[in-house]
Amino acid sequence: MSVEAVADKIRSRVEASGFHGSVKFDTVGDGVIVIDGNTISTTDAPADCTITLSLDDLESMIAGDLSPTTAFMTGKLKVDGDMSVAMALSQIL
């Protein structure tokens, strides 16, 4: 699945979430997904928090097959910036 397809898959969740803040998912060479409030984009932009992980792991998290906590604890997911913004993403993922 492409970054654009993943963004499209979570777009409705993001738009309905009431999420405040900005976060960038950096999929290391496959592209980025930037969530800013209730908007989502695949254009790189600054964010309060950057989460780095593989595209496969991001897809697994969205599908519910990979817990964000497990991904973080096993080193599959790295967080740079405001950790509270990353934790608020649980309402979307």
From TrEMBL:
InterPro entries hit by this protein: SCP2_sterol-bd_dom, SCP2_sterol-bd_dom_sf
SCP2 domain mapped to chain residues: 34-93
Source domain of life: Bacteria
Name of the protein in its database record: Putative sterol carrier protein
Organism expressing this protein natively: Pseudaminobacter salicylatoxidans
GO cellular component: cytosol
Pfam families tied to this protein: SCP2
